Here is the input.
Amino acid sequence: DLVMTQSPLSLPVAPGQSASISCRSSQSLVYSDGNTYLTWFQQRPGQSPRRLIYEVSKRDSGVPDRFSGSGSGTDFTLKISRVEAEDVGVYYCMQGTHWPPTFGQGTKVEIK
Amino acid sequence: EVKLVESGGGLVQPGGSLRLSCVASGISFSNSWMAWVRQAPGKGLQWVANINTDGSDKSHVDSVRGRFTISRDNAKNSLYLQMDSLRVEDTAVYYCARDPHFAAVDHWGQGMLVTVSS
Here is the structure.
């Protein structure tokens, strides 16, 4: 299976500061149709996951514009600008280009 | 409002069976690919299986293939996961999910705990 590697695994951030999470895949995530199926999810404590970003950089409706996704090929980044208390949780990247879909290990974001 | 409501979880002995159900509302269920994703206690997310709109195309990950079967009933807006020959390592919260396109799940259920233990 394709391996997704996130770093860091733990990310303490002061309120108002920015945070970046890296996600690297063991193979290119570019599909034969030219699209890249890389998704970011947020899982707040005690809740189900929530999709934030799909196809690398497309932000879901209702997701604050503080969240942005970027990258290409095998290297991807989720950036959270101006971190707020409600951003606490675990963030997962996931690839859907290759079967089976696989997730990164998760990055725990906490407030300093 | 989209709702995916799972049921059928619980405690089962190793080697036993369980059937999870998920009832969907607020979405066009018959036009939606659906999936099951699980999360072991304190661990990350793992894709389990997905199914196309009419149930004719199903895929299961290697670790459950031959033991778990995903299915659906569009007349009942329902998704199922039949789990047989359960193992301790199958212990997890199982999420019902809508898979709109290449596993980019846009709606999740609240999750259902399955515990496999003697």
Summary: The CA atoms of residues 41 and 75 of chain A lie 17 Å apart. Chain A has a mean pLDDT of 97. Chain A touches chain B through 25 residues (CB under 8 Å). The two ends of chain A are 36 Å apart (CA to CA).
